[in-house]
């Protein structure tokens, strides 16, 4: 488990760093919301999931999509807007999805995934014959969204097997948690009678342990659970900030926030030789992904509205 | 032949689809009791797992339905009042509707959003009387407005079977309509196919929802003076443009009656497309609510904002004379 957790944390870190380069080179248009610094949460939670469980993700979703099992090569092709991408170039960074892997999509609206995950998990219960669960990832900003709180109420009322994972990185874009959250984040879960805990979101092993317990209780039919993972976003809210150079975090906080690095925490538990061989394999994989993404064909403009409907529609 | 009411037709469609397909379930506010008289009795027939009374959390349960649909179910949501659609415009237009394209065709969201009693019920004032079908047609969400019991049955069935989100507006003004119907012939009505309720040769009146009844009455009234064809699009999106062209190219004259606001409304779209693509021999007209109207409470004020037969007669006479 230690090696696989490290591998995923490291893969997400290097994937994101390569993405930032591709944003700079213009291969990725529209920019991205880098997940750098928060990798342990996606890696730890998804390690507690099965292939047939589902997740909903966020605008900062690359880590969740990769950790749930999407192919990094087709994921990068998607970010570059290519027909070979997961969504055939129709989704991009904020909508990357792979339904064959239970990835019900990154989502461009903060807090939107909670109700979708709850509905999917309820459907699993209705369909019977299994103990599948759903996980909804969201940030601290989402805990002020009504639709998420409504979803938590529904999940608790109907004992839905869904895990709500709040990645508290301290900022909703530029607004601090203390300026946006009255009461506490876990207090919201308590209000609905949903068991919650707050854990170190920089340590993938800690996240894995907490997520495993929550997922198992959901599988046993005990209803939803809530996990607050404390973390720090190492990079910008969005790569747009690299040009805009907005300042909203104290310089000393930016230094101290990076002292505990998920990659180093997970990697420190491995034998250096094993770590090196994992790193090398990841570099080779990402080299292949970048080559594939940058050389894949762009979609034909005449297909711009393909897939708009599931069943045929007259013009 | 049996006397079938519009409300009973809606109920029959829902029962038939729930009986036929285990993945269909209905959720909404006060639906176990059935305050809108459509879901009455469904709880006893299908049980609480398929007839879900929800808390007053429209945004939550609308996206809940999206998630259930993505996981293979076919939810039908009843919205007690049309204005609740404003609360969930994000969840329908920006979430459910966009999944198919954004995922490159990976996802299907077969949810039906159902509004029994849309438009003015008279006296329900500003926040309960809207008819926002044009908003959904504008963003490309499949939108239907049945006018007769047979179409209420057939379009509701089709909406539930569609693999995409569909909004079905059942106008308050249509709920009391009854027709003699052979129950054996009730069947799915495809989306995007209009129908001629009454043939005519001088003027095509496109009537949306309950104004089909208004237009039929006006056609009767003008019989001998002007021959009015009453054409009902049934679906506002997709829209049966070729069916409309067939009628308009014959009559050369067009009036639209539409119980929604004039500015950026569906009537404007119909006139614009007719002007671009059809053979009009006279400038077309539309009879609508005023631009940007908020329906006031007092009876005289409420009625002053709604299109009516008198306005339609005037418009038909104007285009016939041009």
TrEMBL record, chain A:
Domain of life assignment: Bacteria
Coiled-coil intervals: none
InterPro entries noted in UniProt: DH_E1, PDH_E1_Alpha_Subunit, THDP-binding
Oxidoreductase keyword on record: yes
PANTHER family the record matches: PYRUVATE DEHYDROGENASE E1 COMPONENT SUBUNIT ALPHA, PYRUVATE DEHYDROGENASE E1 COMPONENT, ALPHA SUBUNIT BACTERIAL AND ORGANELLAR
Pfam family, one: E1_dh
Protein name, per record: Acetoin:2,6-dichlorophenolindophenol oxidoreductase subunit alpha
Record Gene3D superfamilies: 3.40.50.970
Keywords, alphabetical: Oxidoreductase, Thiamine pyrophosphate
Gene Ontology molecular functions: magnesium ion binding; pyruvate dehydrogenase (acetyl-transferring) activity
Lineage: Bacteria, Bacillati, Actinomycetota, Actinomycetes, Micromonosporales
Cofactor(s) essential for the protein: thiamine diphosphate
TrEMBL record, chain B:
Entry keywords, A to Z: Oxidoreductase, Pyruvate, Thiamine pyrophosphate
Gene: acoB
Necessary cofactors: thiamine diphosphate
Gene3D superfamilies tied to this protein: 3.40.50.920, 3.40.50.970
Record's keyword annotation contains Oxidoreductase: yes
GO molecular function: magnesium ion binding; oxidoreductase activity
Annotated InterPro entries: THDP-binding, Transketo_C/PFOR_II, Transketolase-like_Pyr-bd, Transketolase_C
Provenance organism: Rhizocola hellebori
Domain Transketolase-like pyrimidine-binding stretches: 4-177
Name of the featured protein: Pyruvate dehydrogenase subunit beta
PANTHER family: PYRUVATE DEHYDROGENASE E1 COMPONENT BETA SUBUNIT, PYRUVATE DEHYDROGENASE E1 COMPONENT SUBUNIT BETA
SUPFAM superfamilies: Thiamin diphosphate-binding fold (THDP-binding) (SSF52518), TK C-terminal domain-like (SSF52922)
Keyword hit for Oxidoreductase: yes
